[in-house]
Write a structure and sequence with these properties.
Helix content: 25-40%
Number of strands: 15
CATH class of the largest domain: Alpha Beta
Number of helices: 11
CATH superfamily of the largest domain: Medium-chain alcohol dehydrogenases, catalytic domain
Length: about 325
């Protein structure tokens, strides 16, 4: 029996984690091409924090937070034949994941491998879409390449490490603190660099005999960009995921031209439905088999109840997580 009302989390106003509130809302109804999901778990991501702080949203986006969720399909919108009612899925959302129920485009629902618990599956969609597009499509990572991943202890970072290694690339990863370095070493990276005590430029140059890296996956921005360019190999690709230390940078075009570097970036949420559907097909074809085979296993830092969403945001804002933070909604 599907209820008429549900619990959900939204921001009462702009501000810190304390503005998050549990509210009662009518169940969303799946429109044509959508499915209704009874949520098991929801992923917590930095865009949720940015939304809470007032980031402009795409038109007609719900004020309920949450860009990914796992759960069971319980109703279908017009024209939907797959996934069927009763199917466990993990879905990329435009919003609404922090709730008992959410709607998702049918084509953005991924099958959950038998080896992946449904409660952990909410950690996959944002990371998988982001990593496939940025690391493999824009970054053109290939077997034998060397990739430098910054902020590598994050949910996306730990996922990217495993994807890169599964394709035969060598990974150099940066993070802050002994616990995070130990976690990266456990994942099998070629070299983990503690940003608090080491200069990644010096380490990378020594490791690669000054050849440099083929790909940089950067979520730091600011003065990291110039330092990244200095350790990139001829024809290297620099992919920006975020700019936690600032979006304004100085760029040495002479260096870019001399090395034939490519600087690129993307954001997932504003992409068109058609582009997201294309990415979903790529993730299903290329990454889900690696998860099913155990070559990629999402790193889960902590699972908290839905009512503790504010605590989950505090963990992310403090950069205290190693892997993903999830909200458990139902069993």
């Amino acid at each position: 029996m599907i209820p008429e009302m549900m619990n959900a989390v939204m921001a009462r106003e702009l501000g810190g984690p304390d503005v998050l509130a549990c509210v009662s809302r009518p169940l969303p109804q799946p429109a044509a091409g959508e499915v209704l999901i009874r949520v098991c778990s929801a992923g917590v991501n930095r865009p949720d924090i940015m939304q809470r702080n007032g980031m402009p949203l795409p038109p007609d986006t719900t004020d309920i937070l949450g860009l990914e969720a796992s759960g069971i399909v319980v109703a279908l919108g017009a024209g939907v034949k797959s996934p069927a009612i009763g199917t466990p899925v993990m879905a990329l959302l435009n919003g609404g994941g922090y709730a008992d129920y959410c709607v998702a485009r049918a084509e953005l629902c991924l099958a959950v491998p038998d080896t992946l618990p449904l409660a952990q599956a909410a950690s996959v969609p944002e990371a998988a879409f982001t990593v496939w597009h940025n690391l493999f499509e824009l970054g053109r990572l290939e077997p034998g390449n060397t990739v430098l991943i910054h902020g590598a202890a994050s949910g996306v970072g730990t996922f990217a490490i495993q994807c890169a290694q599964a394709c035969g690339a060598r990974v150099i990863a940066t993070a802050g603190g002994a616990d995070k370095i130990a976690a990266l070493q456990k994942l099998g990276v070629w070299r983990a660099i503690d940003r608090h005590t080491e200069d990644f430029v010096e380490v990378v140059q020594a490791l690669t005999q000054e050849r440099g890296v083929d790909v940089v996956l950067d979520n730091v921005g600011g003065d990291y960009v110039a330092r990244n360019l200095s350790v990139m190999a001829q024809g290297g690709r620099h992919v920006s995921l975020s700019f936690m230390q600032g979006a304004k940078i100085e760029l040495d075009l002479q260096q870019v031209m001399r090395k034939g570097l490519i600087l690129t970036s993307s954001t997932l949420r504003p992409k068109s439905a058609a582009e997201k559907a294309r990415l979903a097909q790529c993730v299903s074809r290329h990454l889900l088999p690696l998860i099913a085979a155990g070559k990629i296993s999402p790193t889960i830092h902590q699972t908290l109840p839905l009512a503790a969403a504010a605590e989950a945001h505090c963990v992310l804002e403090a950069n205290a997580n190693i892997g993903k933070v999830l909200l458990q909604v139902s069993l």
